[in-house]
Design goal:
This protein is α+β, with helices and mostly antiparallel strands and 107 residues long. Helix content is 60%, strand content 13%. α2 packs across α4 (46-58). The radius of gyration is 18 Å and the shape is elongated.
Length: 107
Amino acid sequence: MNIEEAAKQLEALGNPTRLQVYRTLVRAGDGGLPVGRLQEKIGIAASTLSHHLHRLILTGLVTQERQVTTLICRANYPAMNSLVGFLVDECCVDAACTTEQDGEAAA
């Protein structure tokens, strides 16, 4: 993942309503949620939800699939894992980190 993509995804999640929508979809699992059910759970107007979903879809964090007349929204778990990995993969690489064994040897 490049820094520009990560920044766009983090910016999208920086809005409280979008973060709530995203967390609700993450909790829903692979089956996702129909838009109407998502709207009920979040308690916002359909047009507002549509706006926020569009932003999450544009950044790749959410996918939508039409099943006959119903739109199913799902969290894009590979994108979520990539973003989380981007944030933590290089933890402490520039620091002189000690392992737990090093700490035990010193004690």
